[in-house]
């Protein structure tokens, strides 16, 4: 079952999480504050106002989530990655499946 | 080597992490504060008092961790998922193996 | 595409993240505060001054990242693990590849 790892500016993260749940692209999104260290156009940045979104969805809904999250996202090149669990508590997997249908 | 991704109410997370380590179900648990956005019974929730537990264990101990964490967990349908690393620093993998034996 | 999950003492985490990006071992590192619960030499610890580093790199650069992060890390047995995404937004994957070349 997929978990999507995405990052966003902190002030956009809650709206993106709500967007995913309201549109049944994810059953649940866990939002975590983070600092992001990266290089852009040759300059090193240390951005303390970012967040990671861990979005719980299904294999069937993942392509929609990826496309719609990219379109809704304020960044030009957002981090959107899919990691697949090798096992999920059955009742939780059932709940995710019902919520994103 | 498995990392278990589980969520819990913030005020239960530390006790669950200690439970896993004390019972040698995990060698180490990293606990991270998060907000959780989800729908339950048709209502959208934005719960700012949650936490993610990243629990380090072995393939052998994972079935026990899953069963005992579900039993100990205050939620009816907790998020408990297993993600397998494709590589782990050898000395760390050895340490995890010794701690959960 | 690999994401490296590593932990570090909170006061070393930002320097390690900068080290990885400055040396083009990772394109981006997300640093998250955490508590770590673990047993060491028979004593249970609950260390509230730790951090998780999620480092974005390529399969080609991962062996270098692993070796150099272990050498630079203040702990004797650091948690360094590789998790592979099954899908990554194409523009983001391209950017990571360019940054760690």
Describe the structure.
The structure is a homotrimer of 101-residue chains. By secondary structure, chain A is α+β, with helices and mostly antiparallel strands. Chain A has a single domain (2-99), classed as 2-Layer Sandwich (Alpha-Beta Plaits). Chain A is 34% helix and 42% strand. Chain A is built from 3 helices and 5 strands. Chain A has helices at 10-22, 62-72, 90-99; strands at residues 2-9, 28-40, 43-56, 80-84, 87-88. Chain A has a 4-stranded antiparallel β-sheet, covered by helices on one side. In chain A, strand 2 and strand 3 form a beta hairpin. The longest helix of chain A is centred in the first third of the chain and has 13 residues, at 10-22. Chain A is elongated. The two termini of chain A are 14 Å apart. At the A-B interface, helix 1, strand 2, strand 5 and helix 3 of A face strand 1, strand 2, strand 3, helix 2 and strand 4 of B. Strand 2 (28-40) of chain A pairs antiparallel with strand 2 (28-40) of chain C, so a sheet runs across the interface. Chains A, B, C: Belongs to the CutA family.
How is this fold's topology laid out?
The structure is a homotrimer of 101-residue chains.
Chain A: E1 2-9, H1 10-22, E2 28-40, E3 43-56, H2 62-72, E4 80-84, E5 87-88, H3 90-99
Overall pLDDT confidence of chain A: 97
| CATH topology term of chain A | Alpha-Beta Plaits
Got a strand count of chain A? 5
Strand content of chain A: 35-45%
CATH class of chain A: Alpha Beta
Biggest interface, chains and residue tallies: A-B, 28 and 27 residues
What does the overall shape of chain A look like? elongated
**Can you list the strand order of the major beta sheet of chain A?**
2-3-1-4
Organism (chains A, B, C): Halobellus ruber
Keywords (chains A, B, C): Cytoplasm
Family (chains A, B, C): Belongs to the CutA family.
InterPro entries (chains A, B, C): Ion_tolerance_CutA (IPR004323), N-reg_PII-like_a/b (IPR011322), N-reg_PII/ATP_PRibTrfase_C (IPR015867)
């Amino acid at each position: 079952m997929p978990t999507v790892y995405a990052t966003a500016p902190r002030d956009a993260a809650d709206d993106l999480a709500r967007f995913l749940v309201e549109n049944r692209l994810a059953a649940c999104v866990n939002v975590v504050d983070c600092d992001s260290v990266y290089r852009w156009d040759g300059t090193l940045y240390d951005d303390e106002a970012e967040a990671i979104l861990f979005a719980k969805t299904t294999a069937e809904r993942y392509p929609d989530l990826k496309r719609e999250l990219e379109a809704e996202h304020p960044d030009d090149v957002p981090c959107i990655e899919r990691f697949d669990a090798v096992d999920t508590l059955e009742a939780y997997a059932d709940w995710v499946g019902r919520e994103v249908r």
